[in-house]
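FAQ
Q: What does a multi-component entry look like?
A: The components come first, one per line:
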Amino acid sequence: MIVLTPLKKFKFPVYAECINPDVFQNKSIAEIAVLPVYEGNKQKKLGELFKIEENPAETPNITINGDVGEVRRIGEGMKNGEILINGNAGMHLGEKMSGGKITVNGNAGGWTGSDMKGGIIEIHGDASDYLASPYRGTSKGMHGGKITVDGKVGSDSACYMHGGVIKIKGDAGPFLGFSMSDGVIHVAKNAATRLGANMRGGKIIVSGFVEEVLPTFTIDNVKPKVKIDDTESVQGPFYVFLGDLAEKGSGKVFVSKANNPHMRTYEKFL
Amino acid sequence: MTELLIKNGFVFDPSNGINGEKMDIAIKNGKIVESVNERKAKKIDATGLTVMPGGVDIHTHIAGAEVNTGRLMRPEDHVKDVVRKTAITRSGVGYSVPSTFVTGYRYSKMGYTTIMNPSMPPLEAKHTHEELNDTPLLDKASYPLLGDWWFVLEYLSKGNLAECAKYVAWMMGTSKGYAIKIVNPGGLESWGFGRNVHSIDDEVKNFCITPREIMCGLAKVNKMLNLPHSIHLHTNNLGLPGNYITTLETMKALESVATDDKPVAHITHLQFSSFAGEGWGSMHSAAEEISNYINSHSHITFDMGQVIFTDTTTMTADGPFEYTLYELSGHKWVNSDVETETSGGIIPFHYKRNNAVNTTQWSIGLELALMIKDPWKMFMTTDHPNGGPFSAYPKIIAWLTSKKARSATLKRCSKKGQKRSLLPTIDRELSLYELAIVTRAGQAKALGLASKGHLGVGADADIAIYNVNPEKIDIAKTYKKVRRAFGNAAYTIKDGKIAVKDGEVVQHVDGKTMWCDVQTAEPVKIDDEMKRKFKEYWTVEYDNYPVYDHYLKVPSPIIVKADV
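Then the predicted structure of the entire assembly, as C-alpha cells:
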C-alpha cells in the first residue's frame, strides 16, 4: 500500500518509530508525510527523508525500497499489519511488537525484535548483536512470537528470553540465550561459546559444532530428535545438557552428536 | 522585571489562616510585599485559579552518591522516559531516578519550589552539593547522616552531650548540612560487621551504646544547638512485618526529650514503619495504633512515604534493609559501607497492584495520612524514589482529597489486600486548605523555614498557581481534573520570577542551597588529635574533606546560635 523510498543515503541515525502500520492506518499520504522523525538531534518530517507513494497493487501495508540501515525503531510496538524492507534495516527493528509481520530482504541491526511479545520477523540476511535481547539493565526479554534469520547472528542474542521461537539458519555468536527462562532457539549451523549461560529454562538446539558447553551444565541423556514447536522437529541425535546449575536452572541445551565428536567424553557419565 | 502582582486568585495560606479568600499578592525583588505600583507591575490574572505558597518537600532523594549509583545501575529506567532539550530547558532522562535538570523541571511543573535531600553521607557531601548546584528552579538543603558517625557514637557512649553537640555543629558547617539525619540508629554501624540491631535496646558492639541512647542523645543535641528542624529519623526494623512495635517504642523513648509542645523528632516515611503481623503472609496495617499515639502526643511529626504502583528504585542508607529486599526479590543490587559514617544500598523494586503486601503498603500510607487529625503533623511524600517517583504527587493529592479516587484504585488491587485495607472505613477527604498544609505550610513549619510555605509580607516569593476553581468544582468528585491541575501548574513563581507557565518551564532560575551555620561558644579545634583521627578513620585527608564555600553555586547560610 504505502511505499517508502529514502531520498538520500543517511549520514546520521534516524529515529522513525512512526513507520508502523498502526500509525499509518487511515492516514492520507499528506498526513503520513508530516509525521515527526528525528535525524540526529534535528526533528524532521517523514516526507523530508522519504519519497512516499501509494501503490494499491502491493500487499504489505508498508514497503521500504532501499537501504535503511541507519533508520532505527521501524515497526516499534506494532500490533498488526505487515512491513517489507528491501534493503538493510537499522537497530531496534520491531522492538516491543506484539503482532503482524516484518520481512527484511537484507541485514538487520542490533536489538532486532527486542522485548517482542508476538508477531513474526523474517530476516533474509544476517542479524547483528542483541537479537531479541532486552535493553541493557532489563530482565524482560522476548515473550512470544517468532524470529527467523537466514544468515548469521551476533553476540548476546536471545538474552532473558521468556517465550517464543528463534530459528537461525547460520551461525550464532557467543552468549546465545543468556539467562533465558523459556522459549526455543534453534541454530542450524555452529554456535560460539558460553551458550545458555545463566539459563533457568527453555531450550537451545545446535545442529552444528559447539566448541564447549559451560562447566555448570551436566549431561542428561542422548535424544534422537527434538521438537521445536508443534509443527516442526529437528533430527539428531543430540546430547542433552541440563543447566545452568549455578542458577539452579532447568534449561536444556541440545548439541548435535554427529558434528561434535569431541563431546564423546561426556558419554561415560551417562 | 522586579514587580509582580497576582490578581484575584483564591488564596490558600494556612500559616496566615487564609482559606480561599480572593486576594491580590504583591511581589517586589523576590519577596512578598504589602503593595506595588499597580501601573508599573507586571500583572498575572489569577481569576478562578488557586494560589498557594510554593510546594515544600521534606524528604526526597534527588542528589548524591546513592542517587547517582541508582542512575548508573538502571539504564532501563531511563530508556522509557527520555526528555529532549528545548530552547530553555536541557535534555535528560526521567522516571524513578531522573537526571538533575529534569528533577528541577518536574518539581517546578508541579508547583514545588523547596526540597530537602535527606541522606547525605558527609564523605559524599561534595558530590551531593555538585548535583544540587545543577538542580535548577528549586531551593534545596541536605541532611547529613550522623546517627552512626563514630564521633557521635563515641561521645554519646561517654555521655558527653556538649562535646557531641560541638562536633555535630562542626559537621553541619563542614558538610553544608541542614538537619541531623538518623537512619536505623546503631544498625548501620553494626552492618559494617555484617550485623544489625533488632530493637531499640540492642547493644551496638564496639561502642556499648543502644539505638535508644543514640536517638535521645541526638534529639537533645539538636535542642542544644537550636537547629531549625528536629532530628529526622528513619526507624529501626524499617520495612519488616511487626515493626510498628519498634516505632511505638521509639516515639515513647523520645517523649523524655520533649519539654514543650514543639516536635522533637520527625519520623520519615512512616508507612514503612507501620507494619503489623508475624510475617509477610499475615502482614497488615498498624495505622490505627500508630495514629492513636500520634493523635494524643505533640512531639512527633511524620511524612507518609506513600507507595505508588510502579517500577521504581529503592535507595537508602539502611544497608541491612536493602539486603533483606534483595533476598526477597533476587533483583540486581548495590550495597556499601561508608567508612566511619554510614552504609547504603540500592535495589530496583516493582510495587504491584496484584500483590497483597504492596496493596497493604499503599493503603497504610493513606490510612496514616487520613487518620491523623492534625494536618500540621503529617506531610505528603513518596520518599522519592523509594515509594515511587515524586512525579506521582498529583495522584496522591487525588487520593487524599477524594474518596472516589481511593475506591477507584483500591477496586483494582489484590483481593487479599483489599480485605485488609482500612480505607473503606475512612470517609475523610482533605480540603484545599488542609492540602496546602500537608504539601507546603506544615513542611516549612516543621523545617523551621521562616520565609517559606506562606504568603505573608516578607516571605520569599515562591508561589504556585493551579487551575482549580474552588467555587466551581468539587475536588472530591472531579479528582481527575485535580490530578491534571496539580501536575501542571498554571504558574510557578520562584524568587519573584515566572519559572513555569501552563505546565511548561519558561525561564531558568537558579535555586539557593541552604545550610545551617551553627555558632557554638567554642568551635571544634582542628588540632593534631583530630587530624590523627582522620588519618586513622577515613580514606581522605582532612583538607580534602570539608565542602568549602565556593562549592555552592548560590549559598544561603542560616545563622543558628547554639546554647553550647
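Q: Is there any commentary attached?
A: Sometimes. For this entry: Chain A touches chain B at residues 134-138 (CB under 8 Å).
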